[in-house]
Amino acid sequence: MFSFFPLLRWLCRRGCPRQYPLPLVVAGAVAVTACLHFLLFPALVYGWST
Question: How far, in Å, CA of 12 to CA of 39, rounded?
Answer without folding.
Answer: 25
